Amino acid sequence: MTTHTIPTRQDFPADFRWGVSTSSFQIEGAGQADGKGESIWDRFCAEPGRIRDGSNALVACDHYHLFPQDLDMAQAMGVNAYRFSIAWPRILPTGRGAVNEAGLAFYDRLVDGMLERGLDPWATLYHWDLPQALQDEGGWLTRDTVAAFVEYTDVVTRRLGDRVKHWITHNEPWCSCMMGYWENIHAPGGTSLADALQASHHVLLSHGQSIPVIRRNSPGADIGITLSLHPITAASGSAEDAAAVKRHDGLRNRWFLDPLFGRGYPADTLALVGDAAPTVLPGDLEAIATPTDFLGVNYYFPEMVKDDPAGGPMRASLVEKEGVERTGFGWEVSPQGLVDLLTRVQRDYNPAVIQLTENGSTFEDVLTPEGRVHDKERLSYLQRHLAALKQAVDAGVPVKGYFAWSLLDNFEWAEGYLRRFGLAYVDYATQQRTLKDSGLWYGRFLNE
Ligand code: FCB
C-alpha cells in the first residue's frame, strides 16, 4: 500500500481505536456558566489584537448545551472513541481549593453520554485553559502550579476515574509553553525563551507527578501525554544543514521526548539555550520519566530547516518548500511525513503504544444551498493520512488508534473562527452542524 491507495477499515487491526478529537475551550462555550472561572484564554481573547478575527470562545459551538447531539453525530459516524478535554476552571474556578460541583456534573453528563453511545471516553486534563487565578500567581512559571495541577487531577479522576479509562495529562506542551511564553502567539502571551523552558519543565513535572494519582483513582486506566511532533528534513545535503536539523529537532521534539523517556533534557539543546535552561530540582527528572501506557502523537506537518547563524538559539531557520501542497493554514500536506515521524519515534524511543491523538486540516469550506460541504481537499488529506497510518502499522510501528481533529469546526486559538478543521461544518449563527463530505466519508469508512 502506498499513501495514494485509499484504505478500508478492514486493512487495520480489528481492535484499532477510531476516534474524533476535541477540546474544551474550543467547543464548549458557556464561558461564564454554572460557576466556571476565567481561564487564561478568556483573558487573552479580551486583549485587543490577540485573536485575528477579534472573537472569543464564550459561545463557540455551545457544546456545553448541545453535547447530546454532538455525541449522537459521533456515534452515527461509527467512531468507538471520543477525545475531549476538561476545563480546569469549570472544576476549580480559582485553580485550587473550592470545587465547583456544577463543573464536575457537566463532565459526568458528558462521559455518561459517551458510554451510553458506545464511545470510549479519552480525557485530556490540560488542553491549555489554565485558570486565570493561577496565572496571576505566575502560571506555569511557578512550581506551585505543578501542585495545583496534581490537586486538580485528583479531583477530576476521583469523580470520573470509574468510567474514564484513558487519560492524557497534557496536550502539546510545545504550544502551551513555547507559543504561550516565548513566541507570543498563545496565552498567556510572553516573549522569553527562559520562561518557556521553565514552563515546559513544570508542565512535564506536573505530568509525571499526576500519574500515581490517576493510577490510584482510576484503576486499570491507560495514561499518556500528547506531544505535537514534526519530522524535520534539511534544506540541502550540506553538513551544515544536517547539523541544523539536529539542533532544531533538539528543541522541537527531543526537548519533550528525551525527558519523558528517561534521558533528561538533551545535552546539545541545553548547551545552546545556555542561561535560559530551566531550574530542575533533584527528583524532577525521575518523576517526568514515570512510565506511561502510551505516547500520544499529534501530527500536522513536516518542517525543513537550514543552517542560519541568525536563526535564534538553535541557529536554524525554517525553509518554505516550493511547489508543495498546503492546507489553508499554509501547513505542508505530507502523508509521508506521518510515516517518517512514526517510524522515527519508534526507532529512537520505542514506546509500547502510540496513539495518533490528532491529525487534520483546515480549508475554506463553503456550505452550499443544498446543505452540503464538498471539502474534497480535506477528504483527500484524511484518506491519504489513513493510508500513511496503515503503512506505519504494516511496518510494525505500535500505533493503535487514530483520532481525527476535529469533530466540529471550532475556535482555532489565535485564528479565532477563521480556520475550520471539522468533519462537521458549524454555522455559528444558528449552531447548526452539517457533516462535510470528509465526515460522511469517515462514517462510511468506519461502517464498512
Ligand atoms: C493542535 C491543537 C488543537 C488544534 C489543532 C489544529 O495544535 O492541539 O487544539 O488547534 O492544532
Automatic annotation (TrEMBL):
GO molecular function: beta-glucosidase activity
SUPFAM superfamilies the UniProt entry points to: (Trans)glycosidases (SSF51445)
Catalytic activity reported: Hydrolysis of terminal, non-reducing beta-D-glucosyl residues with release of beta-D-glucose
Keyword Ribonucleoprotein set for record: no
EC assignment: 3.2.1.21
Top-level taxon in the UniProt lineage: Bacteria
Keywords: Carbohydrate metabolism, Cellulose degradation, Glycosidase, Hydrolase, Polysaccharide degradation
Family named by the database record: Belongs to the glycosyl hydrolase 1 family.
This protein's name: Beta-glucosidase
